[in-house]
């Protein structure tokens, strides 16, 4: 009988090395990104200290992430605020900011840098937007915001989707009420409404349904990471939500309106024209407390309705299993006055127009449930996502990565700049300075009341000069 000689261990080891070398190396999957944008959302949420608000889904995200209690938008209006979010740069002050950028791109302007979604797309991500992510829901222009030849952010998205359901077109969805009601003339449309029915009777129900479809499809692709942006319209005007969300506030004590008086002197106060263009039934919330409280309860109902849509998206993310490798950012595009300074709306450079919630969660984070009082701004989101994913941070991004604050929430933040066409403001941990184009300045102290009712600029000329120079340095 022939006896086989044992195979030398060295040969076995060599064989193992050769076989291992033949296997296709498994790529390390970059983290996915889920960006949830909520329109006109104040930081008036239970997890941000407002006990009268029902926001269980956003609150749950806050328990799993870091809440930025002092986040400020870079503009008090949808278009320019979303410009800073999506480009990582300061830009024009009008709602057409992104369309102006797109026009320059079409004209071959070499000075136009890639947008945030385009940047991630070129780094291997599948990019999809659903709903109101840029200023126009769906990201297109034209009379009804559905002209596919007029793109708000060229080269940004593999798909930019806006389901319109019975609202006919994106413009109809943007200012829609229940069962397909479209704003034709604002004065003929009620400023608030509540109707019995499920979430799909208002536009955000259709947006969320489409977002869930896209999330399922994107999660099934194990070859490419995804960047999914979901834009929820409410609580934007008009305030419409299914009745069960309004019922959440029946019998709930809501706090009095802080500093409801119209400010004296030169400020960025305005007459709330966007709000007053709607049917108010001849009432004025600045003089009729019952009506003011009714308006506020309908706004809160819209917040709870938006919160429910956030919950559906986050639940679907977990169901797919992609949550284990997905960064989640919840972002309010700016604030909204509910009677403070006798304003109902945004568009001022007071605190209420610029202060909005932001929550960031990423897999494996150590400081879940933490809150930070550090001053941060919307423009910081682009470099933060680069830092968290390992994608190269572009040199043109003008914000600051917040990764350090996510790891150490008690660290110091930085100054936040915001602007309108006729004025610019800077917020520090202790003050807000607003600089008007005619040279007039407002200075408010934020270490005591923070109500921005007493202009102390004349008493602190050195601080005015210091902060004025800081504004100019940022926006030069």
TrEMBL record:
Swiss-Prot/TrEMBL cofactor(s): Ca(2+)
InterPro entries: Alkaline_phosphatase_core_sf, IDS, Sulfatase_CS, Sulfatase_N
Residue ranges the record marks as coiled coil: none
Regions that span the bilayer: none
Pfam families: Sulfatase
The Sulfatase N-terminal domain, residue ranges: 31-391
GO cellular component, as recorded: cytoplasm
Keyword field: Calcium, Hydrolase, Metal-binding, Signal
GO molecular function terms listed in the Swiss-Prot or TrEMBL record: iduronate-2-sulfatase activity; metal ion binding
Family per similarity comment: Belongs to the sulfatase family.
Protein name, UniProt field: Sulfatase
Organism: Maribacter polysiphoniae
């Amino acid at each position: 009988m022939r006896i086989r000689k044992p195979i030398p261990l060295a040969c076995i080891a060599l064989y193992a090395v050769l076989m291992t070398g033949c296997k296709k190396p498994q790529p390390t999957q970059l983290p996915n990104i889920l960006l949830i944008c909520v329109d006109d959302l104040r930081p008036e949420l239970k997890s941000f200290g407002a006990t009268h608000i029902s926001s269980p889904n956003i609150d749950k995200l806050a328990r799993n992430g870091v809440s930025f209690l002092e986040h400020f938008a870079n503009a008090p209006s949808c278009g320019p605020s979303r410009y800073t979010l999506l480009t990582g740069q300061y830009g024009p002050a009008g709602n057409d900011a992104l369309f102006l950028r797109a026009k320059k791109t079409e004209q071959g302007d070499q000075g136009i840098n890639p947008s945030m979604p385009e940047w991630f797309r070129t780094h291997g991500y599948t990019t999809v937007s659903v709903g109101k992510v840029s200023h126009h829901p769906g990201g297109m222009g034209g009379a009804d915001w559905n002209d596919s030849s007029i793109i708000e952010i060229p080269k940004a998205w593999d798909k930019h989707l806006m389901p319109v359901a019975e609202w006919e077109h994106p413009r109809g969805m943007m200012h829609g009420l229940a069962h397909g009601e479209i704003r034709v003339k604002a004065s003929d449309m009620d400023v608030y409404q509540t109707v019995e029915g499920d979430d799909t009777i208002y536009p955000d129900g259709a947006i969320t349904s489409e977002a869930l479809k896209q999330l399922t499809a994107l999660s099934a692709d194990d070859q490419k990471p995804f960047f999914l942006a979901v834009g929820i319209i409410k609580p934007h005007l008009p305030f419409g939500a299914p009745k069960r969300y309004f019922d959440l506030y029946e019998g709930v004590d809501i706090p009095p309106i802080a500093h409801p008086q119209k400010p004296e002197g030169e400020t960025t106060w305005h007459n709330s024209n966007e709000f007053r263009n709607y049917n108010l039934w001849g009432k004025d919330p600045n003089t009729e407390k019952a009506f003011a409280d009714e308006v506020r309860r309908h706004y809160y109902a819209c917040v709870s309705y938006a919160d429910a849509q956030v919950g559906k998206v986050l639940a679907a993310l977990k169901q797919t299993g992609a949550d284990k490798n997905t960064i989640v950012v919840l972002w309010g595009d700016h604030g909204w006055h509910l009677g403070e300074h006798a304003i109902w709306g945004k568009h001022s450079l007071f605190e209420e127009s610029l202060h909005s919630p932001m929550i960031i969660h990423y897999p494996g984070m150590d400081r879940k449930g933490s809150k930070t009082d550090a001053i941060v701004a919307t423009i910081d989101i682009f470099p933060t996502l680069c830092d968290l994913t390992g994608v190269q941070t572009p040199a043109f991004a003008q914000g600051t990565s917040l990764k350090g604050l996510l790891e150490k929430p008690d660290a110091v933040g930085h100054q936040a700049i915001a602007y309108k066409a006729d004025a610019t403001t800077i917020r520090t941990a202790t003050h807000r300075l607003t600089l008007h184009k005619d040279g007039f300045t407002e200075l408010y102290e934020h270490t005591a009341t923070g109500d921005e009712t007493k202009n102390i600029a004349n008493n602190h000329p050195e601080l005015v000069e210091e902060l004025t120079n800081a504004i100019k340095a940022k926006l030069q």
